[in-house]
Give the backbone structure.
Amino acid sequence: SADIILEDLKALKEELRKHNISSPKGVIVLSGNDLIIRTFEMPVMPREEINNAVVFEARKYVPFKIDELALDYQIIFDNVLRKNFILAVGIKKNILERQISIFKELGIEIISIEYAAFSILRLLPVSGINSKGIIVVVDADIVEVDEANFTVLENGFPLFSRDIILSPRAVNISEGDEINSGMLAERLKTEIRISLDYYHRKFPTKKIDKAVL
C-alpha cells in the first residue's frame, strides 16, 4: 500500500542520510520471504524451447497464477548426468514494483535485484575460499535473532538453498522469555541436519566436499 511505501521510504532516507550515502545506483537485496527459489532438473532441449519449459515447470512451485510472477533463471549443464540444472527465482510483480518505486523516489537507479543468501556468496573469493567442487555455505548470526541460510554450491552454482528462521517462536520460546545464543545455536544445528537430509535426498550422487560457516 501507499502507507507502507511511504514508511519504507522514510526509513531508507534516514539510513542514507545517517551513513552519508549518495550513490545514484544501487542493488536491492531481498530476504527469502519475498522470493520463490527452486532448483530442478530438465532434459537437454533446443535453446528456443527452454524458456517455455522452465515456466511450465515453475508452475508446480507457485501457489498463485504464474502471470503474477516476475521470473528469472540460470542454467548449468551437468556433463555426468547429461541434464540441465535450473535455478529459478521468482517474485510477485506487485512486490517488485513496490521495491522499485521506493528507490525511484530516492533517485537511485537499480542495477540488479538479488536474493540475500546469494549476495553473501560474494564473500567467498574475498575471503580466499575456493568454491570449486561441491561446498555447503551456512550464513547465520546467532547474536542478532534473524534469518539464516543453508546453500550448496557446485563450482559456484547454487544447487540447493534453504532459509532458516531463528526466532523465539522457531525455538519454542514464549513471548517475553529470555532467549540466548545457545538456544539459537541448537536450533541452527537441528536445521542444518534437516537441510542436509533434504539435500542428500534431492542430489544423492553429489557428495559435499567441504562446508563453510
